[in-house]
Design a protein that fits this description.
Largest sheet: 3 strands, antiparallel
Distance between the termini: 41 Å
Strand order of the largest sheet: 1-3-2
Mean pLDDT: 75
Helix content: 40-55%
Number of strands: 3
Low-confidence stretches: 106-120
Shape: globular
Structural class: mainly alpha
C-alpha cells in the first residue's frame, strides 16, 4: 500500500471510530419509537415512510429526520429499502426479527460518555422525541438552548 493510500485508510478508520455512536443512537431511536414492532405487526409487506410515521404516537411526527435515520439504518442492514414509483418502501431485515424473538428492546439505553455537548451524545438521546414533536431541535431539547457557535 502506498503512503497516500495508507493515509486515506487511516483517516477513514478514524472517522468510523469517531462517528460509530451515531449508528447505535439511530438504532436506539427506532427502538424507542417501536418501529421494529410496527414492521412485525404489519406482516411481511414493505411499508412507506408515511406508514411508519403514522404509527408513531404523535400528531406531528418529524418525517424528514425519520427518513435520514431510516436511510442510515438501511446502509447498516437493519432495514432494506427499494424505490417504487418515487416512493421508498422499507422492509425489516432478519436482524430485526431476531431481536424481536429475543425481546425488544434488548437492553436499556446506555448513558452518554464524557466529552462535552457535541460528543457526549445527549442530543442523540432525544432523537425519538424530536421526531414525535414535529421538529424541535434535539440539542435544544437536551440542553435547553440552541447550539451557540462563536
Amino acid at each position: 500500500m502506498e503512503p497516500h493510500d495508507e493515509t486515506l485508510s487511516g483517516q477513514a478508520q478514524v472517522c468510523k471510530l469517531m462517528f460509530s455512536s451515531v449508528d447505535s443512537m439511530a438504532l436506539n431511536c427506532v427502538v424507542e419509537l417501536r418501529i421494529p414492532n410496527n414492521f412485525h405487526s404489519r406482516g411481511d409487506g414493505p411499508v412507506t415512510l408515511a406508514q411508519i410515521a403514522s404509527r408513531i404516537p404523535s400528531p406531528s411526527a418529524q418525517t424528514s429526520c425519520l427518513a435520514r435515520i431510516m436511510r442510515l439504518l438501511v446502509r447498516k442492514n437493519v432495514f432494506s429499502a427499494h424505490h417504487d414509483g418515487g416512493e421508498t418502501l422499507y422492509r425489516s431485515h432478519p436482524i430485526v426479527e431476531m431481536a424481536l424473538a429475543g425481546g425488544w428492546p434488548p437492553q436499556p439505553r446506555a448513558a452518554g460518555t464524557a466529552g462535552g455537548p457535541l460528543v457526549d451524545g445527549v442530543p442523540w438521546h432525544c432523537l425519538s422525541d424530536h421526531i414525535k414533536d414535529g421538529g424541535s431541535i434535539a440539542f435544544k431539547r437536551a440542553y435547553g438552548h440552541k447550539l451557540r457557535v462563536p
